Amino acid sequence: MVAPPPFTPGDEDSIHEYRSRMSYLRQASRERPLAAGITFVLSLPQPPSRSVQLVERARHVPSLPYGKPAVYTLTRPLKEGFDLRSQVWVATALDEDSQVTVEVVFKFVIPSLLHYPDPGLTEGLMRCGAYRPPAQLVEREVASYMALADLQGGTLPYFLGEHQVLVPWMEEGSILALEYIKAPTLKAIQEDVDSAVGTAIYRDYAQYFALFESALRTLNFAHQRDTFHCDVREPNILVPEGNNIAVLVDWSSENVFSKELYVGIDVVDLAVAFIHCETHQAQLCESLRNHYPDISRRVFPYLVGDHS
What we know:
By secondary structure, this protein is α+β, with helices and mostly antiparallel strands. The protein contains 8 helices and 8 strands, in the order αββββααββααββααα.
């Protein structure tokens, strides 16, 4: 069941009231923002273990205190600011069995920090995707991780549940808890490859193309389950050392009104992201023409006059 919006679409007074309330809370967030040292008490569910046979080059389930309340301390931001879909932080907890501090990702979805609805928003515009309320954003992302559970621990991070919390400025929000993967982004890999002193294994084009294909397989699998990333960019592609797979993070999973359109958008965005590596740009374009002509035809208009 889709959560209703916290205002009445088509009623400008209702939307103005919501915008005013969110503006007040946003101002309060400036005075008491999320910061290192802030703690939350959460009970994380343990994700199912994955075998290498089920998930491509599976990682072990993070060693966290599952199934019981534990204190998690924010340590550093990965993404923060206004008008984003989320604020993302690394948090730590103490594993009582091993007495080792373990890291986890907390993705905060906080209504006042998101985009606000336009005063003229109607139900029809919402159905077309003009605005999605915070609760629907959370629902869609949770649904995506559940639909792609077979990939968790491989080309997706482990999903550790959605949790309702009260943030420091006394606003209710959601935390999506996820496996922390210590790995460079695709952008960092590309910078290393393009540098004169680059040491990455991805200076080998065959390795780089295999990395692209691992990400493409993930998107194809997701699309078969009516799940879409909708924000495929270099910062949202992690490259763990040693297993030559791409991990796609930060699935926005928009409530799409045209599946064919969003399949194309995801795939084009992926190809463009990988083509941004100047060292391999020409070879990758040639590989797309030879092995993925449909993708090549879609990508070409995006590349004319823009290789940045």
